[in-house]
Amino acid sequence: MNFKIMRWFLIFIGMQILTLSIIGGYSLYLETDEENGIFAMNKTLISVKNSQNKSSKAFFTLEDINGLNDYSFTFTSVSPAETANGTSNIIGTNSAYINFNNLKFSSGSFFDKNADLSGEKVAIIDEKLAWDEFGSIKAVGNTLEISGVKFKVIGVISENNSIVGLISGSGLPNAFIPVKALFELDKTAKINSLQIQNDDTTLSGQNLNRALHVLNIAGKAPGDYYISDLNIKKVVIGQKPRIIVFFIGLACIFTILITFIDKLKGILFFIKNKVKTDYIINILKDHKKIIILQLLELLLFSAIIILILGIIKFDIYIPPESLPKELTDFNFYLNLFKKSIEEFNLNKGYLPSLTEIKLNSILSLSNRLFFTGLFIGFPILFINLKYCRVDSNNFNKEFLIICIIFIISTGLSSSIVFISGMTQKLHISDLAVLFSFNYILLIKNLYKKGKEKVKDNEKNMPYYPDGTGSV
Fold first, then answer.
1. With contact defined as beta carbons under 8 Å apart, do 107 and 138 qualify?
2. Which conformational region is residue 267 in: left (phi greater than 0), alpha (psi within -120 to 50 degrees), or beta?
3. I need a surface site. Which of 94, 129, 284, 423 has the fewest CB within 10 A?
4. With 0-12 CB in 10 A as exposed, 13-18 as middle and 19+ as buried, what is 132?
5. Residue 284 lies in a domain
6. Are residues 255 and 339 in the same domain?
7. Are the C-beta atoms of 362 and 28 separated by less than 8 Å?
8. How far apart, in whole angstroms, are the C-alpha atoms of residue 4 and residue 390?
9. Which residues make Cβ contacts (< 8 Å) with residue 458, sequence separation at least 6?
10. Do 410 and 449 belong together in one domain?
11. Domain termination residue (choose one: 167, 191, 215)
12. 3-state helix, strand, coil in the chain (%, to 5)
């Protein structure tokens, strides 16, 4: 393969990875709210660490739940059970579950508070279970047998065909029933997950204190639970594409500054050399057109730097527990490593809720896009653009190819996100920074080519994009 074709192919690959990392990253951020109910990510999740030990006192009881009436909350207890045509996940919960989780119905609705309090034998099933049991998604009004007990189907949940739904699916169909009805079916069922609506939408840590207070009311030991403020999770997911754009913007600014300094040196050397034989007033008068054009170019560079800074700046959030008081505090890093090992061992008995499974799927996709974009896409694009051979004769052609690659990459990335079934919103300013990065590197290469062509006897004069070095 021709080296030039290979270079353009690598530029396309780098551009494709970066556009997908930015567009996909923001789509995953929007997906965090899309996958949740009316409270979106404004909630705190409390989950039992070791769900395999059924004798553990960490599980919540109905008495514990009844003591939380001052809070807006929901909970889940998952128990596999036999239906007429196979095994299903039976999820016991309360009527508030619909407020914390986004369930889209193809027919029917969720059960109300009366059914919740009375433990009525009603069920909400997903489309997979509807097909398995009734051969149709039009199952509302039918009777579903769970472990020999008859439940009336009052709602059918639409299948989540997005990439998040596909990744987070367990393979087993799901049925939601009032928790009291589940406890009648399965005497060993336990409530292992609790969701509480947040009062605080900031990152102050107040929601964690609120969760600890809830555990205190229930008489539980905080060490037996994973506690996650989903506000913080959402911020962490949302800042990843911004970090990528931040580094792209820094590369733009750094490149502009190098060119800015070179241009400024050219002007100063030119004036310094002329001062040897003439007064500075005469120099400025005789060469004012050249000098003014050069100064305007410097002002343009300054304006571009300010504009890019305005786009890429943001307040990054780093969890306090991940920051050492001193960079040389080796005990901190050792304890952090020990904690990760302990959590890995605890995870062996951990049973995540559906909410956590979906959130972990989003986090996993977000991490993959972030690291791929920052450590693969960005270096590939930067290296291949840096060594583009550009001069005044082929600049327009090279720039046109870059524009075409950018448009194709953006279109493909948008199509991938659309096909993945995720919510999409293009951040034009961030994509503009990526486009500017390509253009600025081409301009830098053009100036570099011009410098190389300056003759030894013209070193005291500014160089120009035409590569002549003449004034």
1. yes
2. alpha
3. 284
4. middle
5. yes
6. yes
7. yes
8. 12
9. 469, 470
10. yes
11. 191
12. 60, 15, 30
Tell me if residue 204 falls in helix, strand or coil.
coil
Q: Residue 126 pairs with which residues in a beta bridge?
A: 157
Task: Kindly state whether residue 54 falls inside one of the protein's structural domains.
Answer: no
Residue-wise pLDDT tens digits, 398-407: 999 999 999 9
Q: What is the pLDDT of residues 132-179, one digit of tens each?
A: 999 999 999 999 999 999 999 999 999 988 999 888 877 789 999 999
The whole-angstrom separation of Cα 22 and Cα 374 is: 10
Residue 463: phi and psi, rounded to 5, are -100, 160
**Would 278 be classed as within a structural domain?**
yes
Is residue 258 located within the same domain as residue 173? Answer: no
Structure tokens at 132: 């398995």
The string of pLDDT tens digits covering residues 51-94 is 877 778 899 999 999 889 889 999 999 999 999 999 999 999 99
For the stretch 38-47, pLDDT in tens is 888 999 999 9
Question: Domain boundary residue among 157, 191, 225?
Answer: 191
Instruction: Say if 215 falls within a structural domain.
Output: no
What the block records as the tokens of 297 is: 């170019």
Its pTM stands at: 0.88
End-to-end CA distance of the chain: 42
CB-CB neighbours of 216 under 10 Å: 11
CA distances (Å), origin 140, targets 83, 105, 137, 328? 16, 11, 8, 63
Same domain, 27 and 64: no
For residue 164, give its domain range. Answer: 60-191
> How many domains, in total, are found in the chain?
2
Cβ–Cβ under 8 Å, residues 414 and 16: no
